[in-house]
Amino acid sequence: RRIPQYGYGRLANVFTSLEFERMCNAAGPTNGDVVMRDGVSKPESVAVLHCVGSRDVNHNLHCSAVCCMAALKFGHLVLEKTNAEVYSFYIDMRANQKGYEEFYRRLLEEGMHFVRGKVAEVTDAARNPEEEGKLIIQAEDTLAGKQRRIPVDMVILMGGLEPRHDARELGLKAGISCSM
What single string gives the DSSP state of each residue in 19-83? Predict the structure, then answer.
């Protein structure tokens, strides 16, 4: 909600990463099915937005370090459970642990679409018939050097991780060093 241009709380089929994780859980509200907010319809296209609130001078300057792989996992789950088109919008892909690069390449082979560039807005304001009833991702594609509008059914926001307000104090009490 702190980044209103992404539509969370205003546009029905914009989900946080935590909501999506819960949805995919077999013990979750949808028994593990990936569905829209109506609880029935399966998305035909999904956008995963990396770095929401991270690496941003207005929110958190730091990288959360785990979001890229969680985003790739979510994209994989969508492909596996729905066979939908999946678009992953990222600033830099940080797949730097053992097996991570291989997983990223596997998703490329499976047909996941990767767009390097920060999303400016998620809107439901259609400009043409193909956008009617969809969420439209307005983003710069820095590799192609152009602005893109991509209509999707569902958006997953990979929110940046933030420490608790008292994390430094708790760390010092436990003898754990903290840096800012």
Answer: HHHHHHSTTSTTTT----TTSSPPPSEEEEEEEETSS-TTS--S--SSHHHHHHHHHHHHHHHH-
What CA–CA distance (Å, rounded) separates 158 from 17? 5
Q: Secondary structure of the chain: what % helix, strand, coil (to 5)?
A: 25, 25, 50
Question: What's the CA gap between 140 and 158, in Å, rounded?
Answer: 18
Q: Give tens-digit pLDDT for 53-85.
A: 666 667 666 666 677 788 999 999 999 999 999
- List, in sequence order, every residue forming a beta bridge with 141; answer none if it has no partner: 146
Length, in residues, of the chain: 180
Cross-strand bridge partners of residue 64: none
Residue 36's CB: how many other CB atoms inside 10 A?
14
Give residue 144's pLDDT.
Answer: 92
pTM of the model as a whole: 0.86
Nearest to 92 by CA among 113, 65, 131: 65
- Measured CA to CA, the distance from residue 115 to residue 150 in angstroms comes to 11
Distance CA 29, CA 19 (A): 10
